[in-house]
């Protein structure tokens, strides 16, 4: 039976050649050993496994310090099964705080809204599940992320918060957190509206502190009340690791915290999930200790270097124009490109190129952009730990071979997104 199951798993794609995923595909042997030691530990049972609970608390305070909380030793936060759950918890806290403030003034609380740019699907789920109007800023021309001006057009007294993304899924860029923050400051001076911010740092939360330390996006900005990040992306932890941290303890409403009598212990909990393994948290803590700030910076800067190398080499191929080139001050270690408007392609599209590369094992997704720029098709590469320059050089060679193939074999019927297998950002 083991061989039968193992043989089926061989049909999955090669994770090292998966340049679509944000998630880690490089796992050290020590991480595997720690995960094995923790395979039977239910981390929600803090009374039974007190040291695992202590390790989670240490990670929370480490992250609060990394993100410049004014009270890193006393603020609140928690681990989650991933950044999507963490984002929803941050959104719930915003909604509860807004509702309490409105109710105290005797005002209506039945039409909350949340403002964001092009977001990952978890925010659409949050809005639907928890009855919040999502005011997603549509793209326009060359503006492919939120802008302060577009945020201000949508803010009103029912806005529970603004959510900039530090590493937009579609183009990999950082949204202008500081500029949006300052625009909201000016709005408060003019109208009295005090709008908080939650930062979706799923990717950038573990990048900017190490590779762009002067970039102001975190708790240095007073309006930033909470941050979510994905430990299993650029936090270098195994799959199933997310984090949400609040600026100060007062920013997490007490009504959202449950005290559960579980297996003989009274335990505070704030989560959408309950039982889950403790190994991911232990592995995250191990990485914090082993790598430190210097180690994370070294690994991530190497990824940025590879991303910039790939951007330069792909532009040299001729028909491609970079949308994002892996600049560490402006986004994550990744690159995104489109076909030049005047490119001579012999009929192929980026969907055809993605399909051709897949025949060599590479997963390099092509997809259309969100609302009002659905006409724009882009292709993207994520450079994670383990995606070396050598591996990148092999990809460039295969891209050259693919373009040469299209030159010799004109495409009479270009693939659509559906025909190419599509790509799901969720």
Automatic annotation (TrEMBL):
Substrates-to-products reaction catalysed: L-glutamate + H(+) = 4-aminobutanoate + CO2
UniProt GO cellular component terms: cytosol
Keywords tagged on the record: Decarboxylase, Lyase, Pyridoxal phosphate
The protein's required cofactors: pyridoxal 5'-phosphate
GO molecular function, one term: glutamate decarboxylase activity
One GO term of the biological process aspect: L-glutamate catabolic process
EC number: 4.1.1.15
Residues annotated with N6-(pyridoxal phosphate)lysine modification: 233
UniProt-listed NCBIfam families: Glu-decarb-GAD (TIGR01788)
Family: Belongs to the group II decarboxylase family.
Protein name stated in the entry: Glutamate decarboxylase
């Amino acid at each position: 039976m083991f061989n039968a199951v193992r043989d089926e798993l061989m049909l999955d794609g090669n994770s090292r050649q998966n340049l679509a995923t944000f998630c880690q595909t490089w796992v050290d042997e020590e991480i595997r050993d720690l995960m094995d030691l923790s395979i039977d530990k239910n981390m929600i049972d803090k009374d039974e496994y007190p040291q695992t609970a202590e390790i989670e608390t240490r990670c929370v305070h480490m992250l609060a310090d990394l993100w410049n909380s004014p009270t890193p030793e006393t603020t609140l936060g928690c681990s989650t099964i991933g950044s999507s759950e963490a984002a929803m918890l941050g959104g719930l806290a915003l909604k509860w705080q807004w509702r309490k403030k409105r109710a105290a003034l005797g005002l209506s609380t039945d039409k909350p809204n949340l403002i964001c740019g092009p977001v990952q699907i978890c925010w659409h789920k949050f809005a639907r599940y928890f009855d919040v109007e999502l005011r997603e800023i549509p793209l326009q021309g060359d503006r492919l992320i939120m802008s302060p001006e577009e945020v201000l057009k949508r803010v009103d007294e029912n806005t529970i918060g603004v959510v900039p993304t530090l590493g937009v899924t579609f183009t990999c860029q950082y949204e202008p957190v500081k500029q949006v923050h300052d625009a909201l400051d000016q709005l408060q001076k003019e109208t009295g509206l005090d709008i908080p911010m939650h930062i979706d740092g799923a990717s950038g939360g573990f990048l900017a502190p190490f590779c762009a330390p002067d970039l102001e996006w975190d708790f240095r900005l007073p309006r930033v009340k909470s941050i979510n990040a994905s430990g299993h992306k650029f936090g270098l932890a195994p799959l199933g690791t997310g984090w949400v941290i609040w600026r100060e303890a007062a920013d997490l409403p007490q009504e959202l915290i449950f005290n559960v009598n579980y297996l003989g212990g009274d335990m505070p909990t704030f989560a959408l999930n309950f039982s889950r393994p403790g190994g991911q948290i232990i592995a995250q803590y191990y990485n914090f200790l082993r790598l430190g700030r210097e180690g994370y910076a070294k690994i991530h800067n190497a990824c940025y270097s590879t991303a910039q190398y790939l951007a330069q080499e792909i532009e040299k191929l001729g028909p491609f124009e970079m949308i994002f080139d892996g600049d560490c001050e402006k986004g994550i270690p990744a690159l995104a490109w489109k076909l030049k408007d005047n490119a001579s392609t012999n009929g192929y599209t980026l969907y055809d190129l993605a399909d051709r590369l897949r025949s060599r094992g590479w997963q390099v997704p092509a997809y259309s952009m969100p609302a009002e720029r659905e006409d724009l098709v882009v292709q993207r590469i994520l450079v994670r730990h383990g995606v070396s320059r050598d591996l990148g050089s092999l990809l460039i060679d295969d891209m050259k071979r693919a373009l040469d193939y299209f030159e010799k074999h004109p495409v009479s019927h270009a693939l659509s997104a559906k025909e190419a297998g599509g790509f799901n950002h969720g």
